[in-house]
Write a structure and sequence with these properties.
Length: about 350
């Protein structure tokens, strides 16, 4: 019995020792695992840290590249805007030239209608009424001088410069030259101008869209417009009339109408601009009767009309004319219309010739 107890005690002791050793080994294993996991975690942390540093460096390079790209895009945007501006000016010039071609095709018919109307007016006049001179049908200039000139002694004298806001309540009326002026002058004025417009169409041709969507003549539009100054430019398209007398006959009616419509408004009659003859003679819509000799003759008629009517003759053409009587070559592309680069010259002249 006693021997069995000893054996049982040894067995329990051995079991306890075995359990103890097992616990020790288990703890050692757990500790080893923990040490390994810590080591792995540290390695992973170092790897993540290295990756973050590399990513941060890459992001820094990307930001620098993005900044550089943004700068290049801004520079290219500025260049593109400049190119678009040049393209727009070229498109405008091309549109004007194409419209001039169409206008020239219609010009002979308009001229015939104008002369027929002139003859009808003369036939219906009272014999005691002051007779207008007979229209001259020849397109040849009369006794052309070596350099086409006219006596502009009655032109509006230079005055103190006005601010551009002076034109905020001004109306500009006229032909394709005024169309180009409206595109490039930068003035906040009102414009009633079309390509091919002439004095016979002022009261009749319904070319201008009103607020209600209807199309009205220039005279009808002016009746709806508040203004205190009006600038007129006609003449280049009227050279086809063959007579300055017919031109002035219709211009007279426009001046009388404007005085009655708005007695307080200041009326400025702008001169017909000279041509650059070499460029004009190579232009696709060239006409031989459109020349600086006939322009000078028409301008002289305008000077005389303005004196008689008591309105201002603004000789803006003198700012574009060289010693040979031609428009400066760099001021025009087709010999007739003014380039956008010369519009500030035109505006500056108007600012210094007011009353």
């Amino acid at each position: 019995m006693r021997t069995d107890r000893r054996r049982s005690g040894k067995t329990r002791a051995n079991t306890l020792i075995a359990l103890f050793l097992a616990l020790v080994l288990l703890n050692a294993g757990v500790a080893a695992i923990l040490v390994w996991r810590i080591s792995v975690a540290r390695g992973e942390a170092e790897e993540v840290k290295a990756k973050n540093a590399a990513e941060s460096e890459r992001l820094g390079r990307l930001e620098e590249e993005l900044s550089s790209l943004r700068t290049r895009l801004e520079e290219q945007g500025i260049e593109l805007e400049a190119r678009e501006g040049n393209l727009s000016a070229k498109e405008q010039e091309q549109a004007i030239q194409e419209a001039e071609l169409i206008r020239r095709d219609e010009e002979l018919k308009q001229r015939e209608e104008s002369l027929n109307e002139w003859e009808e007016r003369l036939q219906s006049q009272d014999p005691d009424e002051k007779q207008r001179p007979e229209p001259v049908t020849s397109n040849e200039p009369v006794n052309p001088p070596p350099v086409p000139t006219f006596d502009a002694s009655g032109q509006l004298a230079e005055s103190a410069r006005v601010d551009r806001s002076y034109f905020d309540d001004a109306v500009f009326v006229g032909n394709s030259l005024i169309v180009g002026f409206s595109h490039s002058s930068g003035l906040n004025a009102t414009y009633y101008a079309t390509v091919g417009m002439n004095v016979t169409q002022f009261f009749s041709k319904e070319s201008f869209e009103a607020e209600d969507g209807s199309y009205l003549s220039c005279s009808a539009m002016l009746e709806r417009t508040n203004y205190s100054k009006i600038y007129l430019m006609f003449g280049i398209n009227e050279l086809g009339f063959g007579s300055a007398s017919v031109f002035i006959y219709y211009y007279d009616q426009i001046i009388d109408y404007l005085k009655e419509l708005n007695p307080q408004a200041r009326i400025y009659v702008q001169s017909i601009l000279p041509l650059n003859t070499p460029k004009w003679q190579t232009c696709s819509y060239y006409s031989d009767y459109v020349n600086n000799y006939n322009i000078a003759s028409y301008n002289q008629a305008l000077v005389n009309m303005c004196k008689e009517k008591g309105v201002a003759f603004v000789n803006v053409g003198e700012k574009f004319t060289g010693p040979d009587g031609d428009m400066f070559s760099d001021a025009t592309s087709d010999g007739l219309h003014v380039n956008a680069s010369y519009m500030p010259v035109w505006v500056d002249y108007l600012c210094c010739h007011t009353y």
